[in-house]
Amino acid sequence: MSSTRQRLRQSGASRINNDQIADLVPKLQHLITEIRSRRSNKASASKVLQETCNYIRNLHQEVDDLSRRLSELLQSTDADIIRSLLM
Length: 87
Hints:
The protein is mainly α. It is built from 5 helices and no strands. It has helices at residues 3-11, 18-31, 33-36, 45-75, 79-86. The protein is elongated and about 55 Å long.
């Protein structure tokens, strides 16, 4: 059993059934702009989940990039000004 499944069982979280998945996939489809911009009204659940994962990875990358840039700015000579703006 995967560690994720073990954690779900230990936490008492209930399993998601097929009906719940079928209900969530269209909601994800509306949230992800890459899928929404396509002309197709129907996408497979696996495609929606794949696009969702890609979107989340991209968001993580953006956060990492912005964090790196902020860190570089804070180390610069104008760090006091930047810190005061953040507070």
